[in-house]
């Protein structure tokens, strides 16, 4: 009897300090999320962080249709603001990082030409994220238009539904692509070298990509979700974001 009581006590105690967090995550953060989770679990070792990755627009549609997410980490501020305005999010949208764009090719290119390189006659296919569903895609089109090369290259575009799919298309199905700079800091991408395989796009060509986080209605009583939210805004998380090429205040 005493043994059963001790086992029950241990199980109850464990349930108080463990649980699950379901995060809807913008694809560009997929490269940093494992490192973020590892750092978070140093403090909350029994908390399982589950992640669903996708374009911010598609994730927002899922959240609107009652997908059971606790936290939404968007690639821009538009979608979390919409969810907050419609009382689906219970915290005001807060910027957790600022993303940036880069041009990537699996082949050596003359990146001294900057974004003008996309006009090269030897480049037949350019991968970009879908601007209708992915904020990085919208920023890519804005940069191209501000560089006044849109009409010259629009016929070359192939679209990825998210920035991670765009990275895949860039290295497998196109000559070059516009990707999130954060993707280039992934260990799997370390063989691509700056100024040989990639170059950052002039940030003056597009609106700053302020990425927003919110706690969702589903997590109103989830203390661990609040803990993860606080962690993402902490100095230790900011250092990780910087290490993955983000700009962080």
Describe the fold and architecture.
- The chain is α/β, with parallel strands linked by helices.
- The protein has 2 domains: 17-98 and 209-243, Periplasmic binding protein-like II (D-Maltodextrin-Binding Protein, domain 2), CATH 3.40.190; 100-205, 3-Layer(aba) Sandwich (D-Maltodextrin-Binding Protein, domain 2).
- Helices cover 36% and strands 21% of the residues.
- It is globular.
- The chain starts with a helix and ends in a 6-residue tail after the last helix.
- Residues 1-17 have low confidence and may be disordered.
Topology:
Elements: H1 2-17, E1 19-26, H2 33-43, E2 47-54, H3 56-64, E3 71-73, H4 78-85, E4 94-99, E5 101-104, E6 126-129, H5 135-146, H6 150-153, E7 157-160, H7 163-172, E8 176-180, E9 198-200, E10 209-215, H8 223-232, H9 235-243
Parallel strand pairs: 1-2, 1-3, 6-7, 6-8
Antiparallel strand pairs: 3-10, 4-10, 5-8, 5-9
Summary of the model, kept short:
Helix content is 36%, strand content 21%. With 249 residues, the chain is of the alpha/beta class. It has 2 domains: 17-98 and 209-243, D-Maltodextrin-Binding Protein, domain 2; 100-205, Periplasmic binding protein-like II (D-Maltodextrin-Binding Protein, domain 2).
Q: Into how many domains do the coordinates divide?
A: 2
Biggest sheet, strands in spatial order? Answer: 2-1-3-10-4
Report the CATH superfamily of the largest domain: Periplasmic binding protein-like II
- Proportion of beta-strand residues: 15-25%
Uncertain segments are 1-17
Task: Write out key terms for the chains shown.
alpha/beta; 5-stranded mixed β-sheet; D-Maltodextrin-Binding Protein, domain 2; 9 helices; single chain; 249 residues; disordered N terminus; 21% strand; 2 domains; 10 strands
